[in-house]
Amino acid sequence: MLRFYRAFSCALIVLVIWTGTGRAYAQRTQRTIQEGVGWDRFLVGASANSLIDVFGYPDKTSNGRMMRWDKLGLNCLLNDKDEVIELRFEKRFKGVTASGVTFGMPVDRVRKIYGDAEKMDWRGGGMKFIWRSRGILIWFHDNAVYQIVIFRPQA
Q1: How far apart are alpha carbons 6 and 50 in whole angstroms?
Q2: pLDDT tens, 101-143?
Q3: pTM score, two decimals?
Q4: Which of 13, 31, 53, 144 could form a disulfide with 95 if both were Cys (CB 3.0 to 4.6 A apart)?
C-alpha cells in the first residue's frame, strides 16, 4: 500500500508540474494575429531561415517564393531577398486578429470591426476585402472568413 501511495504521489506531482507548464506555454503562444505585423515569430519582414528555425522545414508543396506549413495553417510569400512580404493564416490556425476577427465570422461582422474595405475583389467562389492602411486582407467564402493575410500597412 505504501508503494502505491508513493507512486500515486509522484504521478500527481508530475501532473501538477506538467499542467502548470502547459498553461504557461499556452499563454506564451496565444494565437492573436496583429494586423500589419503577424503572430509570434511569424512576422512580416522575417527571413526564410528564421521561420525554418521556428517551424521547421516547409512542406514539400512549397514552391518558388511560397513557403507552406499546412498542418499549422500557415504559409507565406517571400521577396527576392528571402524576406516575408505576406503572411497567410488558414482556418486550421484557429487564431483571432487583435481586433477580434475570427475564422468563420460573417462579412457584416468583419465590416463592423474594420469598416468598409479600401478595396474589394471577387474571384472564383470567394471575395477578398483589403484594408491596406491596416495591413490586412481577408478572404471570404460562403460569406465567412476563411483566410487572413497580413502585410506591411500602406499609405
Answers
A1: 45
A2: 999 999 999 999 999 999 999 988 899 999 999 999 999 999 9
A3: 0.80
A4: 31
Cα–Cα distances in angstroms (integers) from residue 61 to residues 56, 57, 64, 69, 72, in the given order: 14, 11, 10, 9, 14
Sequence-distant (6+) residues with CB within 8 A of 23 are: none
State how far the Cα of 54 lies from the Cα of 59, in Å rounded to an integer.
Answer: 14
What is the DSSP annotation of 13-72? HHHHHHHHHHHHHHHHT--EEBTTTEETTEETT-BHHHHHHHH-SPPTT-BTTEEEEGGG
Q: 74-83 long-range contacts, Cβ below 8 Å, gap at least 24?
A: 74/42, 76/42, 76/51, 78/48, 82/47, 82/48, 82/49, 83/45, 83/46, 83/47, 83/48
Query: What's domain 32-150's architecture?
Result: Sandwich (2.60)
